[in-house]
């Protein structure tokens, strides 16, 4: 499988399944699921050649497991990271004492003042380990890793959710819970 093509398809799927399904006139249900046949047809119609074999490859080999099929592979959705309103039916979970967030230097002053905000997404994303946070932060430059006192947050009443692809989600992280 051509990795360059797979990466390009993965980026396009992130766009249409997380942010802008209207780009290809794709319909998502309230839980973010798209019909696989409709997705393939509309991607191909819009210049992104896609077939079931390539889609399977992208879902199975995406390093962050960004996408998931339903049990019979007739539907697909993004695991998390939506800027559109979808209900992922996440169950509340108890986090470890510390979780991590990868960012870059230009956001540090704002984070020190306002904490971590979900911005255009549905949740703030946190990683279970520093290595993953380094990868996340490194996508936009030199990574800055923040340690989040998630155990203390949880004890103080903040809710946490664990996505299907093991990304920790919460509504916001006040600056007082962040170790810079």
TrEMBL record:
InterPro entries: Ptrans_KptA/Tpt1, RNA_2'-PTrans_C, RNA_2'-PTrans_KptA, RNA_2'-PTrans_N. SUPFAM superfamilies: ADP-ribosylation. Its EC number is 2.7.1.-. Pfam families: PTS_2-RNA. Belongs to the KptA/TPT1 family. Removes the 2'-phosphate from RNA via an intermediate in which the phosphate is ADP-ribosylated by NAD followed by a presumed transesterification to release the RNA and generate ADP-ribose 1''-2''-cyclic phosphate (APPR>P). May function as an ADP-ribosylase. This is Probable RNA 2'-phosphotransferase. It comes from Flavobacterium hydatis. The lineage of its organism: Bacteria, Pseudomonadati, Bacteroidota, Flavobacteriia, Flavobacteriales.
């Amino acid at each position: 499988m051509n990795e360059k093509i797979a990466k390009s398809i993965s980026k396009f799927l992130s766009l249409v399944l997380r942010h802008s399904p209207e780009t290809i006139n794709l319909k998502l249900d309230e839980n973010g699921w798209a019909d696989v046949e409709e997705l393939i047809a509309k991607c191909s119609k819009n210049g992104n050649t896609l077939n079931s074999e390539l889609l399977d490859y992208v879902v199975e080999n995406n390093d962050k497991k960004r996408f998931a099929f339903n049990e019979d592979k007739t539907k697909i959705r993004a695991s998390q990271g939506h800027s559109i309103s979808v209900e992922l039916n996440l169950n509340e979970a108890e986090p470890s004492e510390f979780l991590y967030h990868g960012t870059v230097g230009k956001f540090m002053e704002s984070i020190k003042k306002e904490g971590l905000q979900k911005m255009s997404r549905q949740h703030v994303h946190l990683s279970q380990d520093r290595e993953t946070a380094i990868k996340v932060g490194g996508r936009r430059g030199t990574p800055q890793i923040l340690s989040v006192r998630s155990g203390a947050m949880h004890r103080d009443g903040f809710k946490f959710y664990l996505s299907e692809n093991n990304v920790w989600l919460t509504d916001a992280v006040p600056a007082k819970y962040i170790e810079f």
